[in-house]
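Dissemination and training. As part of the outreach component of the grant, students in the summer workshop were shown how a complex can be specified as a set of sequence lines and then modelled as a single object. The example used during the hands-on session is reproduced here so that future cohorts can follow it. Participants entered these lines:
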Amino acid sequence: MNKNQPAQQFTHSDLILENNAIGSIWQICFVANSFVFPIYAFYDKQYKISRMEFVILFILAHKGKLMAWEMCIMTGLPKNNISRGVKKLESKGLIKRSQDPKDARRAILVTTKTGEGLYQELIVHYTRRADDFLSLLDEDDKNDLDRIMLKLSKSMPTIS
Amino acid sequence: MNKNQPAQQFTHSDLILENNAIGSIWQICFVANSFVFPIYAFYDKQYKISRMEFVILFILAHKGKLMAWEMCIMTGLPKNNISRGVKKLESKGLIKRSQDPKDARRAILVTTKTGEGLYQELIVHYTRRADDFLSLLDEDDKNDLDRIMLKLSKSMPTIS
DNA sequence: TATGTCAAGTCTCAAATGGAACTAATTTCA
DNA sequence: TGAAATTAGTTCCATTTGAGACTTGACATA
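and obtained this result:
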């Protein structure tokens, strides 16, 4: 899939970095990167959709409507990135923006029909990969993972 | 810390995307991004060390010596990135490369004393943040997290 | 020992990224 | 009220990133 990676199809177990200085954080980052990397490469190639564009579609599809600053918080991504993604999606007719009547600085963003359609097409690949991946875990593991990651998500500390 | 982010110091709980199409994967990515983002910004500012450079120092410090292709597998990062990181670290005198006698294409990489010293300085911030972060969990949670993330790390699927 | 294939690593180039400065709207509070 | 501070979002610019082509070395098969 990715010609920039060495040819090994699976990670060698002895090249997993257990017991490192930052504990599970390393594994969390490794899993996150390794999981999404091929998907975004695929979206880019097949649909000319960037990571930022997909992420925005994804959260809009779930929340219905959002403002850019809410997207920043939801994704943890910088606002200039979000701003560019929004502009691009708008120019492609995949989302629409309207002024917030209460605050002229803010724009309320929603997907268009086309955008919703594209999202439905894209998400199939993502969920299939996620299901494959999580199928390695039994039900208890999945519940533990859900609970723990949610707990961590809700209280991400700023830098100390 | 990051002027590109909206000013909220903590994530709003209602802006956490629970029950989404890809389950815990979303949280894993969110946590990974939100966790490392401020650290690498800090390293860049204070030490002029990029993410790639740190990651290479980190795994070298743990494994002693490695070749570039092993780093790719361990990190899930593209080989051209690793190659550039290695070149930069070498030019700064933080790592050293020597030919693999068994295969002239390969280079065996190790940290220099300076590199090891810098790593020791950098890792303090990282582990402090990791400890703060994981202190949100009780011992059972931590063990579950370790176990599950390790299981997932060891069997990352290629794209389907 | 030729020859085609594969592997490790580098290079090029276009695109994505993030920090910082900026604009414009809103809020704070003297 | 009005100046100062804050916030939402954009733009600029330098750096980082990744895909793909490329180079060189190893290896398999004949």
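The helical segments of chain B are 24-47, 51-63, 68-75, 79-91, 113-134, 139-154. Students were then asked to discuss how this feature might be tested experimentally.
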